[in-house]
Amino acid sequence: MATNSAPVPVNPASLPKPSGFSHGTLSGNTLYLGGQTALDKNMKIVPGGIVEQFRQAFGNVLATLAEAGGIPQDLVSITIYLTDIPDYQAHGKEIGAVWRELAGPVYPAMAGIGTTGLWQPEALIEIVGVAVIPDERLVRPATA
């Protein structure tokens, strides 16, 4: 029997339609944000390097968060997987500016992890996260 706290997928229409995964899963007030690369609506990795890929990937995370009624201040944890840590570090100030533009001055617990590759070979970054959304803003997607 489904209850109000049964996990439900969160899949914004603004993101590529998922197949075999969900962009997020809401369980109670906790939203688990699935790994987001820099895929655009056309299922293509955005060109232009790590800063542009960060903007798209983090924007995808925030779109999923917003779909459930969340705001950046609800983020409690972010993990960033990187194929080139030195490249990310070299562009840290630009990436920080993008973060502040999209999320403001909120900084949840974070980790940056180097990896040899991601699902899409041209992806340089993948971001996963967790958010806790207060009841007064929580939007629970309808289940099919």
Describe the overall structure.
GO terms for molecular function: deaminase activity. The structure is a single chain. With 144 residues, this protein is an alpha+beta fold. It has helices spanning 50-67, 85-90, 92-103; strands at residues 8-10, 24-27, 30-36, 75-82, 109-114, 125-132. It has a six-stranded mixed sheet, with helices on one face. Helix 1 packs parallel to helix 3. The longest helix is centred in the middle third of the chain and has 18 residues, at 50-67. It is globular. The two termini are 14 Å apart.
Q: Segments where pLDDT lies below 50 for 5+ residues?
A: none
Helical segment count: 3
Strand content: 25-35%
Cα shape: globular
Order of helices and strands: EEEHEHHEE
- Rg measurement, Å: 15 Å
Taking all residues together, what is the mean pLDDT?
94
Biggest sheet features: 6 strands, mixed
Strand order of the biggest β-sheet: 1-2-3-6-4-5
**Coarse structural class:** alpha+beta
For the secondary structure, the number of strands is 6
Helix content: 25-40%
- How far the N terminus sits from the C terminus, by CA atoms, comes to 14 Å
